[in-house]
Amino acid sequence: MEYPGISHFDHALGPPPNEILLYGDTATSYEVQGDSYDLPTNDFVSTSPHFGHDYGGEFHETRTVFADGGERFGATTVTFDRQEELVWVGNQGGHVTSYYGPGMQKHTSFRVHNTQEVRQIASLDDSILALTQNSLRCQMRRGIPLFTHGSDNMVDMLCLLQIAPDIVLMGGHQEKIIEFNLNECQETGEHSTSSSGCAILRQHGRFICAGDPSGRIELRALNSLKIEHILDAHSGSLSDFDVHGNTLVTCGFSKRQGGLSVDRFLMVYDLRMMRAITPIQLMLDPLLLRFLPSFSSRLAIVSGIGQMQLVDTVAIAQQPDLYHINTGGVMCLSFDVSSSCQYLIFGDAAGTVHLYTSNAHAAMFNTFSQETEFADPVESLPPMSIDDMDSPIASIPLPYPVHGTTLLSDWPEELVQRTYRKTPPIDPEILCTMKMQGTIGYAPNPYSSRRNQMRLQYLKRAAYHL
């Protein structure tokens, strides 16, 4: 299935036609009268999640969008663009779609791989990176591909991290972390890791934090990427972790009674002292977590069934904020926080994307965003009556003729040749009385005609050429 490449920006943006509108518990009640099932208003009724607005929640759901390919594939990754007001969504079918602004208007849609799912998307200054199982695609935001990289070292990739303007790191289920140069489009280094591989990469002011699926987190030096510290966070498996300032928080699974069980405690580490501090107990089974950048100590934790909890790593005794994302019972696969901390985005296994905001009236994805490029609007032709004799025929655009064919309105070549007015002959009396001084000739005016008067024969010739 193919999708349109780039859309046109509409200033009078309304709810998309494929938007899923959910009505809250306290929303307007619509009374059915007789056989009439028409709603009394066409206004958009915003969704009201559980534990949301009526309970003093901070975030409220404003948009729910069914992404391209959602009827068959789930949204495996969602990412806020750090340079423009865009949201990027990658699904299990290798398709990437971007949406513009709080209205979630579709901006671009293209495929980066035919069979493999999109594992992660990262935004650069003038392009984006899309990581699949064994390839890295660089694509312009308009949808034009720049390069596709693949090698024998890329076996089962999971994550990527930009550590410099032209350097990215890639990790996966393999015993090496790949260093890739964007300018040269080639791998410039390999760094060994544990046998479990590297599932998550995060950057700290002093370290590159690499989490492996077995529950360990390696703290590597920024320049050499050598392992300096190892944190044994979970005995079973690592689900997710995030770092902000000097605090690192993880969630995962522990081995209990011969199996794996979800840890309802977040492991918290102080990177200044390199030791664990008081863990945080949750009311849900954590799967994904992110720090809220505007609050140095606040976290957003998401469970697999679509529950979200906001906690504070300092004020642990504070009453938690609980939310329930309307996933329809399917699993929540991806989650991201905007750089302005005013928006949260969720992607589920049904291919639906949910946008939450803390300020529905004056919120932005980024504090300072670049201007987004849109497709040129299609020029509409003015209506013309068939018997209108005043409108020029040239107002109707015609296609360029195919080579070897002509239009019926084309004139023969002998009728479209350029002709120029001939120079009138000089009066013979002037030539007889002319005196030469070098290359310049002087002659008295014979006054053979009045001022602004021309010969009739010359006027007839000039009129013919005109």
UniProtKB/TrEMBL annotation:
Organism field: Gryllus longicercus
Name this protein carries in UniProt: PAN2-PAN3 deadenylation complex catalytic subunit PAN2 N-terminal domain-containing protein
Pfam families: PAN2_N
InterPro entries documented for this protein: PAN2-PAN3_catalytic_subunit (IPR050785), PAN2_N (IPR048841), WD40/YVTN_repeat-like_dom_sf (IPR015943), WD40_repeat_dom_sf (IPR036322)
Superkingdom field: Eukaryota
GO molecular function: poly(A)-specific ribonuclease activity
GO biological process: nuclear-transcribed mRNA poly(A) tail shortening
A cellular component term, taken from the record's GO annotations: P-body
Start and end residues of each PAN2-PAN3 deadenylation complex catalytic subunit PAN2 N-terminal domain: 61-357
